[in-house]
Amino acid sequence: MRDTLRPKSWLGLLTEVVLIGLSVFLALMADQWRVRREHRQEAEATLGYFREEVMTNRDAMAKERAYHENLSQEIGHFLESDGPKNRQAFDATVHFAGVHPVIFERTAWDLALANQSLSYLKPSLAYAISRVYTRQQAFQTLENSFLQSALSPSMFGQQDVTSLASAILAYLTDVNIEEPALLKLYDQLLHQLDISSPSPSPPP
After folding, report:
1. How many CA atoms lie within 13 A of 62 on its CB side?
2. Would residue 119 count as lying in a domain?
3. Which residues pair with 160 in a beta bridge?
4. I want to staple 122 with a disulfide (CB 3.0 to 4.6 A). Which of 11, 168, 173, 199 is the partner?
5. Model confidence at 22, in pLDDT bands (50, 70, 90)?
6. Count of domains for the chain
7. Is residue 48 part of a domain?
């Protein structure tokens, strides 16, 4: 009974404080390690999603390159020729099967914004990804604007297709500038995705 009432020594108190502090420190370290591991797993998944989506968009664009180049040349020849500019002459000269807009996927980008997984990637890689998707969105806007404004039923109903052909040629001129530039950005980004590893938040 006397021992239990006896005050603890300074050494005993110090030992208890040290042990409690060490336990708290180890618990915090374990929790931070768990968080960093989760961030790394999310970053690895994000890299995989982006690589798959960028490959899909790149392949979709590359598939249309030859058609857009040839269509631009044929319409240019049609407009420069001395022949009639009616629909019959256009159909005989130009192998027109629509403008073949590229439909981009952006699920990986939307998901990364929603779960903030871009913050788990290296800043240089996150910047490169954002740059590609910004350029891609601008190109999508160009496509949508042309489809809504130029390719109306009334334009195709006119016998003289000079205005329609000129509008398509102007659009294809932009397309044939933007597509090679985007393909180059896709290739650069794919290279970065291949060689990059996630860089989650550094330990404290």
Report:
1. 11
2. yes
3. 86
4. 199
5. low
6. 1
7. yes
| C-alpha–C-alpha distance, residues 83 and 204, integer Å | 75
CB contact at 8 A, 102 and 60: yes
User: What type of residue sits at position 69?
Assistant: E
d(C-alpha 143, C-alpha 103), whole Å: 9
In a domain, 177, yes or no: yes
What is the rounded CA–CA span in Å between residue 144 and residue 151?
Answer: 11
Residue 56: domain span: 42-195
CA-based end-to-end distance of the chain: 47
Residue 142 within any structural domain of the chain: yes
CA distance 178 to 162: 24
What does the block give as tokens for 174?
């932009």
State yes or no: pLDDT of 79 exceeds 90: yes
E strand or H helix that includes residue 138:
helix 123-149
Q: For residue 7, what are its two tokens? A: 């005050």
* CB-based contact 186:104 (threshold 8 Å): no
